[in-house]
Write a structure and sequence with these properties.
The chain has eleven helices and 14 strands. The protein has about 375 residues and is α/β, with parallel strands linked by helices. Bound molecules: pyridoxal-5'-phosphate.
């Protein structure tokens, strides 16, 4: 049996007719950048996420970069984030010549350890950028309480967490802004790059709308120094079609996660393999189903050999990346992130996965551990 990590072809096959209709429509219209398809998607997603405003941009990375620009992050400023995430979360801080300041994550949720946040907040910290990693919200109540008390804006990296919620509030609706990615492997993926920023604040929304078009309020009149970061009509039209299935796909991911848990438990593997822990109040959307094991590299090779897709998100914590040597961090500075990068392994959890495939993944892991 073959179980890929993700199967976008089978997803496309299931929605091909709907997609073809909108492709044809956009091709005939030849109105290709921003426009009504983008506005429709922005309205739909703003109301789904529970913010009044959403701004379509060119990628998830740009959603975070523009959010930092909107806050006014300057060279030399500090922005607090975590070292256990995709590079973009910190890369956007450096792009503005600001300095990423890392706070370690918790070993259970893999998200920012809010008990360590206050200590990192020196007076030159201009923003806090927590990540909702793998599809589960960070401890936003505590983070916002600490940030609000000091007047520091919070920018959520919700790129992996569209539809995730915590105590009834959706990812992207907590902070000043939330950044989403439509990279094809995300829970709502386009046919290329794309991103979205959510905000409840109309003034923030207005500035972001300017920043994505070189700060221009009317053509060739520039109010702010922005950049070119717009969402294509084609992507927006495709994403709008795919959004109709998001709830169903998310429910399937959640059902697969429940099956994994049951299967691991039934064969007693839950003691040797740590399955994802969902914090109380969280609704996890499982962009990834990430287990932990000490024999990670051997297990990864074994699964690959047996036709099972798997991936290490992420093998090197950001404070130990070559490009961040000049930040002056050392091995041992963030022990939880370092240990996770040695132990995590993401398994297939895409919606189209069958029960037989799930069973095969668990049986193969069992065979490996009983070798
Ligand atoms: C995907 C992702 C991004 C960046 O999104 P792109 O659309 O690829 O630029 C940022 N942060 C996290 C946590 C991501 O998973």
């Amino acid at each position: 049996m073959n179980v890929p990590l993700l199967d976008l072809k089978s997803q496309y096959a299931s929605i091909k007719q709907d997609i073809q209709v909108v492709l044809e429509e956009v091709c005939e219209e030849q109105s290709l950048i921003l426009g009504t398809h983008v506005q429709n998607l922005e309205q739909t997603l703003a109301s789904y996420i529970g913010t009044d405003h959403a701004i379509g941009v060119a990628s998830g990375s740009d959603a975070l970069l523009l959010s930092l620009m909107e806050v006014g992050v300057q060279p030399g400023d500090r922005v607090v984030t975590v070292p256990f995430t995709f590079f973009a979360s910190a890369g956007v801080i450096s792009r503005l010549h600001a300095r990423p300041v890392f706070v370690d994550v918790t070993p259970d949720t893999f998200n920012l350890d809010s008990t360590r946040l206050a200590d990192s907040l020196t007076s030159d910290v201009k923003a806090i950028l927590p990540i909702h990693l793998f599809g589960q919200c960070a401890d936003m109540e505590t983070i916002l309480q600490i940030a609000d008390a000091r007047g520091i804006p919070v920018i959520e990296d919700a790129c992996q967490a569209i539809g995730a919620a915590r105590n009834g509030v959706r990812a992207g609706a907590f902070g000043r802004t939330g950044g989403f990615s439509f990279f094809p492997s995300k829970n709502l993926g386009g046919f290329g790059d794309g991103g979205l920023i959510t905000t409840r604040d109309p003034l923030v929304a207005e500035r972001l709308q300017l920043l994505r078009v070189h700060g221009s309020r009317s053509e060739y009149h520039h109010h702010l120094i922005g950049m070119n970061s717009r969402l294509d009509a084609l992507q927006a039209a495709i994403l709008h079609v795919k959004f109709q299935y998001l709830a169903e796909w998310t429910a399937k991911r959640q059902a697969h996660a429940a099956s994994y848990r049951q299967l691991f438990q039934a064969c007693g593997l839950d003691e040797r393999v740590t399955v994802p822990i969902v914090a109380s109040g969280n609704s996890h959307v499982y962009n990834q189903f990430t287990i932990r094991t000490r024999q990670r590299d051997e297990l990864s090779a074994y699964l690959t050999h047996h036709g099972i897709g798997n991936r290490i998100y992420y093998p090197v914590p950001l404070h130990l990346q070559e490009c961040y040597q000049d930040l002056g961090y050392r091995k041992g500075d963030f022990p939880v992130s370092e240990q996770l990068s040695q132990e995590v392994l993401s398994l297939p959890i895409y919606p189209e996965l069958t029960q037989d495939q799930l069973q095969y993944v668990v049986d193969t892991i069992k065979a490996f551990l009983n070798k």
